[in-house]
Amino acid sequence: MTTRADKYTRFDAADYLDGIDDAATYLQIALDESGDDPTAVPRALGVIARSRNMSELARRVGMSRDGLYKALSAEGNPTWTTVLKVTNALGLRLTLHEVA
What is the DSSP string of the chain? Predict the structure, then answer.
């Protein structure tokens, strides 16, 4: 039975991404489900980045930790260069395929 004293933690997908396969699948789902939302990929990269060492990732991308958090947040507006650098630093590659 749940009481008022019970505390709930906010769900964060970053807590459940255990490896590169999970990260790649998460990013693919974000791409598939994004529709016309231009923030879907950067936000997904932000979740993946939080599942890793954000400071190390920022160093590899050449940004500050805070700058990377901001760029990959829901309010962020990263450049395509930043998206590609983050993707590569995570060990992922964006590819395009013909749509039937």
Answer: ---TT---PPP-GGGG--SHHHHHHHHHHHHHH-TT-TTHHHHHHHHHHHTS-HHHHHHHHTS-HHHHHHHTSTT----HHHHHHHHHHTT---------
Q: pTM of the prediction?
A: 0.83
Which residue segment(s) compose the domain that 85 sits in? 17-89
56 within domain boundaries: yes
The total domain count for the chain is 1
Q: What is the pLDDT along the chain (100 residues), one digit of tens a residue?
A: 556 667 888 898 999 999 999 999 999 999 889 888 888 999 999 999 999 989 999 999 999 999 999 999 888 899 999 999 999 999 999 888 888 7
